[in-house]
Amino acid sequence: MVAKIFGKPKPIIGKVALMPLPGSAFWSSDWELLTARAEQDATTLASAGVDGLMLENTTSPGVNNTRLDHAAAIAIAQLTTSIIQLTRLPVGVSVLHNDPETALAIAVNTGACFIRLSVLAGAKLTPSGIANSRFSELLAYQQQLQAKMPYLLVDINCNQRAAFTNSNDTAFRNPAVIQQSIQSAVDCLPDPLVNNIGFVLNDYDLSSTEFAVIKAASEIPLLVENTCKPQSETGLYYAESDGILLEANIRKKQRFSPSSVPSIDMLEAETFVNKLNNVQPLSEMDADVFLNDLA
Question: I want to staple 115 with a disulfide (CB 3.0 to 4.6 A). Which of 27, 88, 103, 258 is the partner?
Answer without folding.
Answer: 103
